[in-house]
Design goal:
Blueprint (H helix, E strand, L loop, with lengths): L1 H15 L3 H15 L3 H5 L2 E3 L11 H10 L2 E7 L7 E5 L6 E3 L5 E3 L14 E5 L2 E2 L5 E2 L5 H5 L2 H4 L7 E6 L19 E4 L3 E2 L1
Parallel strand pairs: 1-2, 1-6, 6-9, 9-10
Antiparallel strand pairs: 2-3, 4-5, 7-8, 10-11
The protein binds adenosine-5'-triphosphate and magnesium ion.
The site of magnesium ion has 4 residues, from loops.
Enzyme class: ligase
Catalytic activity: (6S)-5-formyl-5,6,7,8-tetrahydrofolate + ATP = (6R)-5,10-methenyltetrahydrofolate + ADP + phosphate
GO molecular function: 5-formyltetrahydrofolate cyclo-ligase activity
Amino acid sequence: MNQRKTLRQKIRTLRRSLTPRQQQQAADRLLANIRNRADFRRAKNIAMYLPNDGEINPEPLIQLCWTLGKHVYLPVLHPVLHNRLWFVPYTPKTKMIKNIYGIQEPTLIPHQRRTAWSLDLVLLPLVAFDERGNRMGMGGGYYDRTFSFKALRKGLTGPKLIGLAHEIQKVGELPIENWDIPLTSIITDTKSYL
Ligand SMILES: Nc1ncnc2c1ncn2[C@@H]1O[C@H](COP(=O)(O)OP(=O)(O)OP(=O)(O)O)[C@@H](O)[C@H]1O
Ligand SMILES: [Mg+2]
């Protein structure tokens, strides 16, 4: 557990030290690496996130989705169930509010939410990844809990989970726990994995 904590801190510091220019360049390259993929082009309902703590910025992708008429969703903290995410529509008109972590999220309109399993594609942030698709997040277990249903049928059900990251967030092999949900693929500013 301590090993996980140390690694998390190290990579978060590395990620935060990228300059605005490096972040912009990474965001542009990420867009180029995703836009022609078959899974992205096919997907109609796509969950993404707003960048925080040096995460690679998917906002150019969000803009592209709006232009293409795809539906974009952002995660919001579940109002009652501890450590679970809901996904709600995000458009240029969406009203935003800060959650308990100080991160902007759409104001929750419960009937608009989309269940996790009915999304086509989830582009999710991460702290560290390895080439086998293992993922380490910020340590809340939010994505792991929300997509735990995928473990039951070994990824045969529900959306593809694609981790987005800076190439510098790659590690040799991640220490993984039995609740960690693996990624379908990982896309960085320079490469795609799996
Ligand atoms: N399906 C689950 N059911 C119950 N507890 C869980 C589940 N998944 C994760 N947890 C708990 O959540 C805590 C954090 O998990 P972990 O360290 O893997 O977070 P993470 O993957 O970095 O976070 P996130 O998914 O939010 O990005 C762990 O202590 C674990 O016990
Ligand atoms: Mg985890």
